[in-house]
Every structure is written in C-alpha cells, then in structure tokens.
Predict the structure.
Amino acid sequence: MKSTICIAEDRVSCEPCLKLLLLSLTRHSPEVRVSLFYPPANEEFRTWITKCPQVSLQADHLKKGCGWNVKPHAIMHLMDRGFEEVIWIDSDIIINQDISPIWCGLNSATLVASEHTLADERCDRNARRAQLWGLPVGRVLPFALSSGVLRVTTQHYELVRRWSELLESDIYLDVQKREWKKRPVHMLGDQDVLTALLTSTSFSEIPIHILRRGEHIILFDGVYGFTVAERLASLLGARPAFVHSGAGKPWSERWTSDSAISLREYIKMVYLDLSPYTISALRFRDDLASHAEWMEPHYVLSRILRLAGMGYPALVGLPMAVCADLARVAKYVWRFPSSKMSPVVTIAVDDAQIAPASTSPKNVDRRLSQD
C-alpha cells in the first residue's frame, strides 16, 4: 500500500517536540515517508528540516481553528491524494525504534490505536461513550482508546468521515469551549468520539490492533502513566516504540522554584521533571537547534533521582512511581463500594432524551489484536 506518516501541528510553542519527533523518525525509520502539516513554518524551520529528507512539509492550513481535532481532516486529505494507509502520530511523541514492523503483516481492514491510561475518565464501561452519543452499541472495549498513534486505511474512510462530522457538530464545538474537567466524558476530546464510533453497531466489525501501554507505548500522564509494572517490563526487555508526553509539556512548562509551590504541586512538578519523554529527548539535544534548557533537572530531588536512575527512563522516577501506584490503589479501594454503579439510564443530549442501548459482558469484543 502507498503509505505515509501524518503529523499536524499549528502551535509554535510545540516546535521543540515536533522537531524531536522528526529527528527520532529520521534516526529509526529513515525510509518511511512523512507528511507534515505545519502552518507556522518559517525560513529557519524550513532550513532545519533538511536534516529529515523523508519529510514533506505542507505549510497551508488544513482547516483553521481545529486544534487537535484536525486529525480526520489531515487523514482524509492524504487519502484523497492517493495514500492507501495513513499513520497518524501526535507531535508530543518520541520514537525509540523502527516502527515499520508494527504495521507489517496487518491487513487493510485492521485499524490500529493505543490503550489509554488508568485514569477514571478513561474507562469505557458498557460503551458509555457510544451511549452518551445516542449510538446503538455493537461491542464493548476494555478501555477507551487513545488516538495519539493511529493507523487507518482507505477501508476506514467512512469511519474517518463520520468522525469528522461529529467533531464539527455544534454540540461538540460548544462543549470544547469549556474547561477540560467540565466536559462530559464522551466529548473530552477527539479520541473519545472515535471510541464511541468504534463501539457503535455501525463500525463494530472493524478489527482493532491495540498498542499496549508498557509493551508498545509509554503514555506518561502523571500518576496514571508509566506504572511500576510497565517500568519493570521495560527493564526486563520490553522496549516500547513510542514515548508519549500525554500530561504536562516539559518544553513549555513554567518551572517554579522549590520554595514557591505547595508540597502537592512540588511532587507533581518533580515527577514531570523525571518524565521518560524528557529522558528520551536528551539524546537528540545537539540536533534540536533550539532552546533545550527544559531538559535539565529543575529541582534538587529530580536531579538526585535522575542520577540514581543512571539515565534509564524506567529507573528514573521509579521511587515516585511506587508512591503513585500505592496512592492509586488506595483511592480505588476507598471508592470501591460506590464504583458498582448501574449504567446511565437516560442521557440528555442537545435537549433530546436518548435511551442507551443494552450492553452486557457478552458484548465485549473478542477480536482485538493485542500482540
């Protein structure tokens, strides 16, 4: 199949992470074609990108004001230009190895997405995202999907088109104006809409190949990412191909001094300072051609833990990961009695009352490919 990697970014503040993704792709997958949509590209960036000869830069806007909801537009644009396979990669990802074998052997009917984090809002019990959209349920996934890495082919064009329609709906656009924590779970972002569609009857026959956390991808999302188990698997030989900085953007973070923040905020910032993304980024520092001071440790504790971890992403931050895991388990145990909630019975969407479809364990999709 005629294939390309698709990357789209419209924020100048994210240029450092965009460069890191391109540098890592050039190092590990130099033969893979890359289609980059980056409207802010200036002459300096155009000169720098000659380091990555497989990248085709397109500086025109696909659709203004889309933000991260641009994914289906970018994918359909490339398919309309003749690409049969499009692999989307978020700009805040670093590649650790050649990614070509991941797609090799997959048939054109199979879609690839990644497992999401352990955060409460990432659960998709009883296909609640499909239900909240008023879509009849065709299957139940074990978790909500992340669209940070996404492989689709022309066989999924109708899915991508429908995805784009929902992301452009008035109700979705209105909800996106709210603070992230105040959005309903089925409209947190584009990936929640994609999960809803893939669990609906219209698209439940599409086989999904899941990229698993710790095995294929490190999804660092604070206390919900890169758990102790995932770190131990990495130390024992698992080498995830992708490192995703899902929560916290170290290259644009406003780092505050030790004495100016609360203990809770200090722990959060130290953990971000120990991000596997940052540790992985260090090897590309000399080729970045832009400020890289953010890669240095900002706190005494993070400096100590980086030294203790000897530069290994799985070891750096391991003590804090142990504490984070224990805190998450304690929270789960504390909330367990109230977690046995029955599914939502009636959902109000755009002034209409929608009765959700019936779901049960037998609906859990057994066709997920996880190896």
